[in-house]
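Before a colleague's protein record goes any further, I have to sign it off. Alongside the sequence sits a line of tokens, each denoting a local backbone shape. I want your independent view on whether this chain really folds as the tokens say. Where you disagree with what is written, explain briefly why. This is what I was given:
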Amino acid sequence: MQTADLFIYPSVYEGFGLPVLEAMACGTPVVCSRAASLPEVAGDAAEYFEPSEVDDLAAATERVLSSTEKQAEMRQRGLERAKLFTWDECARKHLEVYKGLLA
């Protein structure tokens, strides 16, 4: 994934969006659908499209691939965004939920 020019994720339903997060952590620009949890995971680090609109996907892909400046900006934003999601933070949040349920 690190050598890819772009990661495209046309998911219609997504539980969390781990593939998007993995791509960002590799420094790969992400184009993903504006569905389910993907905007919450990718934030401002991805280029979005409506999953039911093929032309929107093509336009989003073109916007990224036609601009080396945009690609560099997306790589940097993606790397920063990926740092917000760690396994330690995931475990901490789960522990909080469990403690709340037991209280």
Notes: The domain at 7-102 is CATH 3.40.50.2000 (Rossmann fold). The chain has one domain: 7-102.
